[in-house]
Specification:
The chain has two domains: 44 residues, no CATH class; 82 residues, Alpha-Beta Plaits. The chain is an alpha+beta fold and 156 residues long. It has a four-stranded antiparallel β-sheet. The chain is built from five helices and four strands; from the N terminus they run αααβαββαβ. Helices cover 35% and strands 16% of the residues. The protein is elongated.
Length: 156
């Protein structure tokens, strides 16, 4: 069972976090508590297993990136973890995960690459391909963003 305060904090955490030096202070002040209390409740929710993931969504267009591509890679299963760990070190990659190949689709490792234009995406992917020794891949460029929202567990 969640307390009213826990529900208020979870509701705030579902919104955009202010891009300032101490965002949790500002959020705490919105509900009339101290920053230490706010962070303490978050830590307790995490410890109790009620918060399993804390993520941020980058609005890449506002960050200067004009092109992004999901790159689907075919990687031998025994190399997926090692290859994915190497790929994840590239600062141009914001997502890296493994999926089971679907019928008619041989790819099992996926990365999201952001760049200033599509040519730069291709150049980045070639660099990554060389670094990991994998050359079977497809670039799937985003053409239109249809949805980018987070799960909402509580509403105001």
């Amino acid at each position: 069972m969640l307390t009213d305060l826990e529900k208020k904090i979870i509701t705030l955490m579902q919104t955009d976090i202010p891009v300032i030096k101490r965002p949790f202070l500002e959020m705490a002040e919105k509900i009339g508590i101290t920053e230490d209390k706010f962070l303490g409740v978050l830590k307790d929710l995490d410890k109790r297993g009620l918060i399993r993931r804390f993520g941020a969504t980058l609005k890449h267009q506002k960050s200067g990136f004009k092109a992004n591509a999901m790159v689907a890679w075919k990687v031998p299963e025994e190399r997926v973890e090692k290859t994915g760990n190497i790929m994840a070190t590239f600062h141009e990659i914001t997502h890296c995960y493994r999926r089971n190949p679907a019928p008619g689709w041989k790819y099992n490792l996926y990365t999201m690459v952001h760049a200033s234009d599509e040519d730069e995406c291709y150049a980045i992917v070639k660099k990554i391909s060389k670094a990991v020794g994998e050359n079977e891949y497809e670039l799937l460029f985003s053409r239109k963003e249809l949805k980018k929202t987070s799960m909402k567990y509580f509403e105001d």
